[in-house]
């Protein structure tokens, strides 16, 4: 019997992707070495979509799982699935917003060579060791906070010390990343590469651990804590140097590196920035997309609920719901505090600049005043740079908000 009916092409056949089910309700799409978390329905479409010759056949294959028309299936594929295949970079771009001069500094092979010798640190004793290191660091801080930062060196040496500690950032961040890589190796994952980029002048490094999705949450948490683990060891080494030397310059440099390293540890643990702490919290409670979910919770609080919202149908356990609520409240406080301090900083810089301009005719040009003038110029430059960069984001938020209220 002839089939005269015109069939709709299954465009999924044009793409070489794979889908896998890693646990109940957890589905992964991998395409061109990138992984995407997908829902069960999209998973079914992609799974059957590899075999069906037309969308009509695909609808029949899906028959047992969902009742759907060819037209609506086509719409889902065209608007939700194909954009991922067509521009796999978009997902990455969003993640690396504001990141510049991003480049690979260590290949997969060399990362493994350098990381393997320290991978023994990330065995079964990791968590007790981590706790010991953490308590030892806090104890050392209270024990030695007097000897830290009481050195008396000239202002020129002071600048030199800050410059050296800025350079030390690169080394600290590098061994931090090696910690992630070594821990990944211990968990049976191959680290791909280590890269470097900059947020304005602030360096930032990352380890490509694309294959981490295959691991259990427990192992993910461990790998994400491993960078900080290394930094806790560095702090102990630095405090030893401070206590062992009498040299003022060395002490001053070591104190500043100690300060920089400790600040990085704290920043890394803040779960409201997309650093290690964010992923640790997200994996520990099994809540993916913590920030988007928290955004949604906020939006739901100020807008009328969309009756066609799919996400509302996914049931969250009471624990997850509580964690998400606390997270959202604290995040609002964190953002509000940050905004307050940013404006306070801009205001005080503005006042200081006004005073400087007022007294400029009476100023004697010496080393100290040159430093003061350079500091003011640098601060204003940073403020202008940030305003230019975040102006767009700021207005986008306002525009988006206006749209919520309209809906
Ligand atoms: Zn890290």
- Name the structural class: mainly alpha
Unique bound compounds: zinc ion
Could you give the count of β-strands? Answer: 6
Widest sheet: strand order? 1-2-3
Overall pLDDT confidence: 82
Q: What gap, in angstroms, lies between the N and C termini?
A: 52 Å
Shape: globular
H/E topology pattern: EEEHHHHEHHHEEHHHHHH
Explain this structure to me?
- With 407 residues, the protein is mainly α.
- It has 13 helices and six strands.
- The strands form two sheets. Strands 1-2-3 form a three-stranded antiparallel sheet. Strands 4-5-6 form a three-stranded antiparallel sheet.
- The protein binds zinc ion (ZN).
- Zinc ion is lined by residues 176, 180, 227, 268, 276.
- The site of zinc ion (ZN) has 5 residues, from α7.
């Amino acid at each position: 019997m002839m089939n005269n009916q015109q069939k709709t092409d299954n465009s999924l056949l044009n793409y070489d992707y794979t889908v896998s089910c890693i646990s109940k309700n957890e589905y992964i799409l991998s395409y061109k070495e990138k992984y995407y978390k997908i829902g069960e329905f999209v998973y079914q479409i992609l799974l059957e979509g590899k075999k069906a010759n037309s969308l009509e056949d695909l609808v029949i294959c899906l028959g047992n799982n969902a009742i759907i028309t060819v037209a609506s299936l086509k719409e889902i594929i065209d608007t939700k699935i194909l954009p991922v295949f067509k521009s796999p970079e978009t997902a990455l771009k969003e993640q690396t917003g504001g990141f510049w001069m991003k480049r690979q500094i260590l290949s997969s092979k060399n990362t493994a060579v350098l990381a393997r010798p320290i991978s023994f640190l990330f065995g079964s004793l990791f968590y007790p060791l981590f706790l010991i290191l953490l308590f030892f660091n806090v104890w050392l801080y209270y024990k030695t906070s007097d000897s830290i930062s009481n050195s008396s060196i000239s202002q020129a040496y002071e600048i030199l010390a800050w410059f050296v500690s800025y350079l030390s950032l690169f080394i600290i961040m590098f061994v931090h990343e090696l910690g992630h890589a070594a821990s990944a190796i211990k968990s049976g994952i191959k680290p791909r590469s280590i890269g470097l980029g900059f947020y304005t002048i602030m360096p930032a490094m990352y380890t490509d651990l694309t294959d981490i999705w295959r691991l259990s949450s427990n192992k993910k948490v461990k790998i994400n804590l491993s960078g900080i683990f290394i930094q806790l060891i560095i702090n102990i080494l630095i405090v030893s140097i401070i206590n062992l030397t009498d040299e003022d310059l060395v002490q001053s440099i070591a104190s500043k590196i100690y300060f920089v390293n400790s600040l990085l540890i704290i920043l890394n643990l803040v779960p409201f920035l997309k650093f290690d702490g964010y992923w640790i919290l997200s994996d520990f409670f099994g809540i993916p997309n913590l920030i988007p979910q928290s955004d949604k919770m906020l939006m739901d609080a100020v807008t009328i609920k969309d009756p066609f919202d799919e996400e509302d149908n996914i049931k969250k356990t009471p624990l997850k719901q509580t964690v998400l609520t606390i997270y959202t409240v604290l995040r609002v406080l964190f953002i509000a505090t940050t905004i307050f301090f940013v404006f306070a900083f801009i205001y005080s810089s503005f006042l200081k600049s006004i005073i400087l301009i007022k007294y400029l005719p009476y100023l004697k040009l010496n080393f100290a005043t040159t430093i003061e003038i350079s500091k003011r110029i640098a601060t204003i430059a940073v403020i202008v740079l940030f305003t230019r960069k975040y102006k767009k984001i700021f207005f986008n938020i306002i525009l988006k908000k206006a749209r919520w209220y309209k809906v």
